[in-house]
Request: fold
Amino acid sequence: MPHILLPTHLPGITGLLEYRKDTAAPIRQLTQILLRGDSTLTQGERELIAAVVSHANACVFCTSAHTAAADLLLGESETCEMVKQNIDSAPVSDKMKALLTIAGMVQKSGKAVTAEVVVIAKECGATDMEIHDTVLIASLFCLYNRYVDGLASVTPNETEFYRNLGERIVNHGYNRLPQGYDHLKE
Amino acid sequence: MAHIKLPDEELPGITGLFNFRPDTAVPLRLLAETLLRGNSLLSSGERELIASYVSHLNDCHFCHTSHGAAAMAHLDCEIGQIDDIKDGFVKIPISDKLGALLNIAGKVQKSGKDVLAEDIENAKSKGVADQEIHDTVLIAAAFCMFNRYVDGLGTWAPEGNEAYREMGRRMAFQGYVKR
Reply:
């Protein structure tokens, strides 16, 4: 049961974002820019960062949602699963390995990011903007994961829920749906 | 030196990063403005104390001291009192309600899952409303983002409390959104 009274038809983050819309607006806008805006990282690569950080924070809702989004964008489910288990042996580029390693450090603490790993990322071709965005995406998911679990919002169990959510994320992005969410009421 | 090349390396902490990517700065500034100066049952002084306390727990000197300075400006306290946030609020008077919310914020800093039903019950027994619990959790979560952004990119921060006096006043009374 959530720690505060939330709309019952909206589990996970959505009910929280509807609970206080004026704080939701900049959070949604930031997410839309970072995960869907122009970037030299693909949308799938950016969802991998979100999934890895959420997994390290043991936030089941966010991990499931962003895994579903990454799987849809990548067209397969192996990469995201492997990245969550072990970045070094996952089938991603050396640049992505370095960026995901940075994201994993950010999950622990900003201070955990070493100059060495940043040098490795740059040697693998990562640009300053890619390093910036990786750190900010990882930081943003440290917000989301704590928001979702800190208020004990409902985490559905059904795989189908996350498949639908993944599709909503891929097709509509992170802005509030123009029609709101009343259509999700049973 | 920061981990990435910032256009103006004189700008400390998050300000150098805002300058590096202005389009993400817009929602980041608006989130801080809404959370710390927007409508809330908590005063801005109380909210800045929560922000500064969480930043201290995250060992983020820039955010801890700048938001501490903003709290001191709101609460009309001496700038040196910022240190009391690190010392666990011995001198700054804290209501039972704020004490219960700071406890929740400290749990959020570790992990969302660390917030227990008993922490919430304790807060509610002190008269805390759902909205205040929501705002406390989101402020604490947001500073887990801001702190990581600032330190994860290796930005520099001025040392002593005094260097943050004017910055804190600006944050408190002019706010976070560029006008």
Observations:
- Chain B has a mean pLDDT of 97.
- The radius of gyration of chain B is 16 Å.
